[in-house]
Amino acid sequence: MPLLCTILRASAGHLCCRSLCFCCCRKLRYWPCRTELNYSQNPGALSMIYISESVMKRLVIMVTCFASVLCFHHNRSLCPPVVLQRFVGNVNSEAVVQNKLSHPVRTRFLRFVPRDWNPSGWMGLRVEVYGCSYKSYMADFDGRSSLLYRFNQKSMSTVKDVISLRFRSHQAEGVLLHGEGQRGDYITLELHQGRLDLYLNLDDSRLRFSSGRVAVSVGSLLDDQHWHSVHIERFNKQVNLTVDSHTQHFQTKGEGHSLEVDYELSFGGIPLPGKPGTFLRKNFHGCMENLYYNGINIIDLAKRRKPQIHSGNVTFSCSQPQLVACTFLSSSSSFLSLPSAASATGGFSVRFQFRTWNPDGLLLFVQLSPEPQRLVLQISNSRLYLTLHSSGRQKSEVSAGHRVNNGLWHSVSLDTKNLQITLTVDGEPSSAIELWEQLESRGNFYFGGCPTTDCQHLTPAFQGCMRLIFINRQPKDLNQAQQGLLGNYNELQFDTCNIRDRCLPNLCEHGGRCSQTWSSFSCDCSGTGYSGATCHNSIYESSCEAYKLIGSSSGFYSIDPDGSGPLGPTQVYCNMTEEKVWTVLAHNSTAPVTVQGSSLLKPHIMKFNYSASAEELQAIVSGSEQCQQEVVYDCKRSRLFNTKDGSPLSWWLDREGERRSYWGGFLPGVQQCSCSLEENCMDMNYFCNCDADTDTWANDTGVLSYKDHLPVSQIVIGDTNRTGSQAVYHIGPLRCYGDKSIWNAASFYQESSYLYFPTLQAELASDISFYFKTSAPSGVFLENLGLKDFIRVELSSPSAVTFSFDVGNGPVVLSMKSHLPLNDRQWHYVRAERNVKEASLQVDQLPLRFLEAPADGHPRLRLSSQLFVGRVTIRLNTPPPERMTPGVSSGCPGYCSGSSSLCHNRGRCIEKSNGYVCDCSQSAYGGTTCDQEVSVSFDMESSVTYTFQEPFSVMQNRSSQASSVSTESSSRAREDVAFSFVTSQKPAMLLTVSTFNQQYIAVILAKNGSLQIWYHLQTDRSPDVFSPALNNLADGRLHRIRIHRVGKNLYVQVSSTLSFAFPLIHNSNLENFNEKVMEAASKGFSGCLSSVQFNHVAPLKAALTNRGSSLVTIRGPLVQSNCGALAESTSHTLQGKTFTHSPHGNGTQKDLAVIAGVVTAVVFIAVCALAVISRLLYQQRRAQRSSSIKEETRHSVYTDYRTELHLHNSVRDNMKEYYI
Q: DSSP class of residue 866?
C-alpha cells in the first residue's frame, strides 16, 4: 500500500493548533479511513508530501488538492515520527470529519500519515488545521542596522538575567546582542561560523585586558535560513545557554556575581560610539522575533517608537530569503549541467558558492576549445585543486583554500583573462595557471558531477549544496533547471540545502572527537583510554584482580571500574605479592604530620586529595569485597575524646564529608579506638590510649574498614594547644581487595526461571558480556522489551549465539556459529555491543562479527520493561537483581565455578567428571595450572622464528573490503605484547613482528640502553618511534614490558611504572630507521627472555613444546632457563608508612642486581635467516592464495557481515612472522 505523508508548515515558524478536519478532493475517490498525526520541531525539515514511486502517475492530480506551499521529497528521515494522536477519517467523498486535539500543540511542522484507505477508488486527502492565537513581534536587520536599548540610569547591575529570542540568519557571522560596562563586565551573543557563541565576564580584570576571550558555543549550521530559538538564563555565576533543544551549562569567570552594563544594550550589531553607522564587528543579517530582555519586549518598544529604543534601518517584517540552493545527494551520480552564456570579452568565468562535509568531490568540469583540453575543479584532501588537462598526459594544477569541507558556505570564482586562469576562494589571494593561448568553453558546464565518459573517472561526485551560480557573469535560475527549462540534472533537490551536522550532538563517548562526511560520522578516540566506533569500550581492565588473571605482576596500572560507563580510568597501584590482590590509592599526604597549637576554635585541618575523583573512588570501593585504611595517631598530652562528656576533640570526615569519630574497626556507631575493641588499652578507664593524657608518647593505631565511609577525606585535630601537647598522625593509602564482578554467577533450573533487573539504559550505546555453560540446545540469555524496540541475546541452536534488536529500523539479527557445540557444560564467553554506528558479537575467541547501522536510521533504543536474565547458568557483571523467580540460585556447580581462579595467566578451566584441567594453550605459561613461567636462553648462534596464519574469515574480509572500510578496519586493529627480559648488552634487539608487505613492530634497546618501540604500519610513510623508558634498561635487572595498541593509540607499561600513552603520528622527519633497527639486530642479544606473548600466541613456549611444528624454525641449540622467576623480586610491598609513588626502591634495585647477575641468556635475531624464511613462506602464501579464490567466491554471500579479530588478534595481514 503506498504511503502518503503530508507536512504543513506555519509561515511564522510555529504552528499552534487546536483542531483539524478531513475532507476529500471531489476529483478523487480514494480517501483515508484512519490517519496518524505526527509533529516535529526539526529545524532541518521542510514542507513536503512523501509519496512512493508507485503512485507518481497521480502526482499532478494530487498537487491540485494541496496548498502551493507543499513540495515533494523522498528523504523521510527529515521528519522523525513522533506520534501525537490517531484520528478517524472520511467514510465517503462528501462528509467532513472534525477531530479536536486533547490539548494544544506548539510545533513547526505537522505530518499526516494515512494508515488505512478505502478499498476502492483513488487517493485523495485534504486537511484543514485550525490554530490558536500567536503573537509575533518581528524585526528585519539588513546587516547595517541595529537596535539600541538605553537604560533609565547610567548603568544596569543585575544578579539575574533572562534573555530569549528567535532568529533566522542569512549569514554565518553576525552579532545578535552586546553590552559592556566600565568595570570590565560584558556580554556578547554572536554568530560565528554558523555556531552561536556567548561571551560573558563578571568583573574579571584578567579577561578585560586579555585578547583570548573564551566563548561558550552551542548549535551548528545556524545560517540555514530556518528559525532557531535562543534562551539565556543567568543567576549569579551559573548560566544556561539553550539553542533549540541543546543546552550548555557553565559557570562564568571572574569574582563578581552581578552583570554591570553601562548606558545601553545593542541588538544586531556593536555600534562605535560617536560614529553612527560604524560597527566594531560584523552585524547580524536576518530576522529576529519575540526579543525579550528581562521581560521587556524590545521589538514592541521599537515599533511603538519609545524613547529608550533607537532603531536604525530596522524594518518590522521578515523578508523571505531570495537565495535558491540545490542539494547534490549522490556521491556517484549527482550532477547539474548548465549551458554557457556568450561572453562579450572572450574566455569564460564561473562563480558559485558551496558547502559540504566531504573532503573529496568534483565541483566543476568543462571542456575547452581548442580540443582536447578540459578544466577540472575538485575538492581533494579538504583543499581546492584546479587542473588544466592538455593533450596527452600534460596538465597544470594549482590549489587554494583550507578546510573547505567544514560545512560552511565558501565562495569560488574562476576567471580566464590575460592568458591566465585564476582561482579565488573566499576572497583570499588568487592562484593562477599560465596559458599559451586564450581558451574558450565548449559545451555545457557540469557542476557536482559528470555523466559523460570524459569525466566519469573523476569520482567521487560532489555531495553538498550549491547556490548563486554565475556563468559569464550571468546568474542561473535554478528554478528553471528544476522545471526542465534550463540544462539537465540528476539526483538533486532544489530550493533547499539539506545539510546536516552529524556531530551535533556529539555521539562520540568519553571525550572522543567527532568528524563527519555528508552521510556518516566517525570518532577519534586518541588519548581517551577508550576504543570502538563511538569510543565506548575501555582499553583498561576493571580491577587489579582482572590484571592478575591475565598474568600481570605488581605495578602501577590504569583501571576502569565501571568499564564503558561514564567514569574515566584511574591510576592505582596493584600489589600482587600476597594471595589477595590489593588495589592501592595514595593521597597527597603520605608522610607523618606533626601538629602543635591546635584547638577546637582553631583546629588543624588536613584535606586528602586522592588520585581519583569522588565518583571513581566510590565505584572502586563499592566494587571491592573489602576496603581498609590505616590511621596512626601518636600523641603526648593530646586527647581524642573529652574525658568529661565524651565529645570528640579530633575527628575525620568520610568520603561524603560526614563527621566520624571512631578510630578503628568497622563499627561506625562506636566512638572508640582499636585498643578498646581489643581490650588492650594502656588505661582501661579510657576508650583510647591517647585519652589517658600522659606526658609520655602513646599510640592509637586502627584500621578503618567500614566501606561506606571510606576513604578518609579530611582530618581535624583540636587538642594540641596545651603545654607539652603534641601529636603526630599518618593516614595510610586506601587499600581494597577483591572484585565482586569477577565471578557473579547464578544457576537456572527451570525454563520459566528468570532474574529481573531494572530497565537497561541503552539508548545510544550498550555492551553486554557474560560467561555461560549449559546442556540445553537453546535458551534466552537476556531480553529487554519496549513498545516496539527490543534487545535480545540467546542461544539459538547448540552451536550458535544470536544477538538481535530493533531500534525502529526493523529487526536486526547478528548470529555467530561455532564449529564446536556450545552446550557442552563448559564455560563460554559472549560479548554483544550495539551503538549508533554498528553492532558486534563475539563468542569465545572466534573472530568478531560486525554489522553496520544504517546512516539515517533511528539511533535510540527505547526500552520500557524490566531486563530479564535467565534460562541457562550464567555469569555477568550486573547489580543485584530486583526480583527472581523460583528455580534460580546463586553460584554455579562445578570445580570451575569458584571466585578464586584455578587456572592462572589466561589459562582456561575445563570441567571434567572427576575434577578439572587447565588449558594453557593460549598462555605464555605452563604447568598444570598455567603458573610456571617459560624462559629460554640461546647462544650467539641461535634464533627462533615463529610463523602464524590468521583465520580464513579475516582473509575473506580483507579480500572483499571496500575502500570505505579501511578507516574502520584501522580503528579496530590491535596488538597485545608482553614479555620479560634481563640483559646487560646495548644496543640489542628484543623482538620483532613483521609482515610480507614490510609492516613491522620492533622493540629494541638503543645505544644508551633506553627502550625504543618502532611501529611501521603504513609502508608509504616513515615509522613511529616511541621511547617510554629513557633510563638504561640494560642493567642486569629483570624488566617486564607490556605493549597494547588499539587503532591509533599505543599504551606501554615498563616494569611497575605508570603506563605511557602515545598517538601514532607517522613522523615523516625520521631518517635511517632501517639502519638503527638492523644495527640492534646485528649486535645480537645477550640476556634472557621469558613469558613472551603476542596476542594469543606464546612463541617461546611453542618453540619448546612443538619443535617439530612447521610454524617454528629453530637455529642453534635451545636451553630452557629460569629468568622469569625474577619477576616477583620487582614487586613492591606497600604497607603503612612505607607507601611511596616511586616505582623502584633502592632496596629492590640492590636485590635485583644480586639476583640478576646469576642469570644469563642469549637471544640472537638472524637477519640472513629472515630473508630465507620470508622467501619460503612467501611462496607458500602465493599457493594458498590461489587455492582460496574458490572459497572466497563460495563465501561472498556473507560480505554484509564484516568480521574482525578479538582484542588479542591482529587484523592487518594474512600471515605474520614473529622473530626472537
A: P
Q: Is 486 exposed, middle or buried (0-12, 13-18, 19+ CB in 10 A)?
A: middle
The SS3 assignment for 459 reads: coil
CA distances 129 to 21, 106, 883, 1157, Å, are: 7, 13, 49, 91
Whose CA is closest to 762, among 790, 723, 781? 790
Which string of b and e fits 216-230 if b means at least 16 CB within 10 Å?
A: eebbbbbbbbbbbbb
Please name the amino acid found at residue 173. Answer: E
Statement: residue 1017 has pLDDT above 80: no
Neighbours of 801 (CB within 10 A): 25
What is each CA distance from 1014 to 995, 1011, 1132, in whole angstroms? 14, 10, 30
**What nine digits make up the cell of 777?**
540446545
DSSP 1041-1091: EEEEEETTEEEEEETTSPPEEEE----TT---HHHHHHHHHHT--BEEEEE
What is the DSSP-derived secondary structure letter of residue 123?
-
For residue 461, count other CB atoms closer than 10 A to its CB.
28
Within 662-746, residue ranges assigned H as helices are 674-677
Output the 3-class SS for 258-280.
Answer: CEEEEEEEEECCCECCCCCCCEC
230: which residues sit within 8 A by CB, 6+ positions away? 163, 164, 165, 166, 167, 176, 189, 196, 241, 242, 243
DSSP class of residue 315 equals B
User: ω into residue 372 within 30 of 0, thus cis?
Assistant: yes
Per DSSP, helices labelled H in 235-377 are: 298-303
Give the integer Cα–Cα distance in Å for 1050 and 1052.
7
With a cut of 60, say whether residue 1195 has pLDDT above it: no
Quote the CA–CA distance of 180 and 834 in Å, as a whole number: 49
Mean pLDDT over each residue of the chain, to the nearest integer: 76
Rounded Cα distance between 836 and 822, Å, is 30
pLDDT in tens, 661-702: 888 765 676 777 888 778 888 888 888 888 888 888 988 888
CA dihedral 56, 60, 63, 65 (to 10 degrees): -110
Residues paired with residue 192 on neighbouring β-strands, in sequence order: 195
Return the C-alpha torsion angle 128, 131, 137, 138, nearest 10.
-20
End-to-end CA separation in angstroms for the chain: 67
Residues facing residue 189 across a β-bridge: 177, 198
Selection from 689, 548, 686, 704 nearest residue 626 by Cα:
704
Pairing outcome for strands 349-355 and 431-434: unpaired
| Phi/psi of residue 971, nearest 5 degrees | -70, -20
CB 1040 within 8 A of CB 1092: no
Distance CA 842, CA 771 (A): 12
Write phi, then psi, for 1156 (nearest 5 degrees): -65, -25
Are the C-beta atoms of residues 725 and 638 closer than 8 Å to each other?
yes
Beta strand ranges found along 181-328 (DSSP E): 186-192, 195-201, 216-218, 228-235, 238-243, 246-251, 259-267, 285-293, 296-297, 309-312, 325-328
For residue 233, what are the CA distances in angstroms to 213, 249, 407, 810?
20, 10, 29, 41
Q: How confident is the model at residue 19 (pLDDT cuts 50, 70, 90)?
A: very low
Distance CA 746, CA 751 (A): 14
Q: How many Cα atoms within 13 Å fall on the side-chain side of residue 554?
A: 20
What size, in residues, is the chain? 1220
